């Protein structure tokens, strides 16, 4: 089996099902998944020849990459299976068995995922530990690969950003938002390598005619990241860290080497990467509106809920870098800071920020 | 997908990798696995047409049912893969990809399993949560199913044994050893149903020509269980429970309703079940000597080590029934009792107590 060498950030969503867990604090992600339901349904009915794909084995295989601990992954998978069943009914096919690969990093809390699997699933469920920037599924075996809210996570922070001698050294910031152009370029190149690898390995895993469906952080081509609400958050994060450093809660070294490996891609740059890869046709490539609250006036409660979700999603990144004793202090201060910035958040660009694309394996 | 209704005991091995964990206390099981290595290697080379099986997909699929948390499952799987590779080299076949299904109950500690997966595996690994008395793998898709030390666990304690009005009511005992013949019969019937179901679902999952390899607790036909060292243990367990009940540490109800759902099968009864099923040919069916220490003089340290393994293996059964506060007390008392019975253990029948069988899917 081909092995891929990558430096991985250990970034599982917060495990368990306690008050700070991802499984209890992923309603924003749930909204995203719901938004995609109709789009994915249409894609499956119009672009997927399910009948031909299952001829032979009569097993239909689906993978959710970056599934976390549930429950969103179960809703997503259920929706996909219903669409495939509708498609098969229309073509008078016999009902296949469904196998679902739930994939995430080995550090993900698969115990919570498995024990919260619905009792009456209509599919066989397996968990696949491993980075989706490497091979995780047998070759030419999967019919639909879906990943929502995961591929904006880079495989690692770009090396240059951590190198004091580099122009891309990102001291005093936690992201490429508002950063030097060398930092932006370093993130962009890292995304290019990661998404390039992602497409390369998925091309090996998908059967010919299979679909790769992706929802991730997006941005219109040419728009500076600083226009976005997330930019307000990243700037505030850096400010909180500097404050905590000045109080001796964290070291300067810790603060300077902390960067969040998240990248928002434009449709144009993903299209370029897909064309370079050459194994897929583009069936859909669009920027969509993300979770509903961003469309309307932002209130204090919205900000608090947002931060609870961010803490469940990014918490382990902070814990791995700073230790777990700073997590609550950091997020309490961050939340208070952002609560004072609702107007700035509200006036940020908040529309087409989810990049959705669907590719068909040639 | 066909769903199977069974009442399951939640019986994961002790999770994590702490001092009481299964992963740290499964060396007796490791010895069993080592003993089987040569036998399994020979089977694969002589009875499996690996070249024909992989034609088409070039993916070779292996399942370990009841894998627990490792590391024994990794050794076992490695050995199997090496044998298959040898077989394929001999027939000048191209190297396939290997997919390994690691199966256990959903309550098993898959997090420990996944994070302790060797870094340099030559296979894609997936975890499959679910009882192996139901379907866990897509139909006609797996080439070798192996299960060591798991199928002597019944899907549940036989109902009659828990029924006060039944002749099989097993008051004052924890097992069918030395019990009324109705109790023995109830366990025997339960094993027949469970193994019947096991063979039925495996027949659906294995490809034609695929192998089902099982190592489990066995016993020569007609031998009373009371001849065995395990019988000394079960009798002592019952005595400790009665003592704890008299001291008010557990209730009479708790003591009377506790039974260990483990059954030792003879080659003859498994052969009968395989013939009844009709989907397999018997390639091997034999009683082997189990773990090495049972062959020689038994000393106090042997007994202590044995009990540490039993605690890691059966601990959750006690915790589920009595609560976790009694676990240490119970096993401390049990160990002390058995330490005083080394001669009795030594004079027990200790030879052909592992039933090994290999079946080929027609």
Automatic annotation (TrEMBL), chains A, B:
Organism: Camelina sativa
Any matching Pfam family: Methyltransf_7
Protein's recorded name: Probable S-adenosylmethionine-dependent methyltransferase At5g38780
Alphabetized GO MF terms: methyltransferase activity
Keywords of the record: Magnesium, Metal-binding, Methyltransferase, S-adenosyl-L-methionine, Transferase
GO terms of biological process kind: methylation
Keyword Protease: no
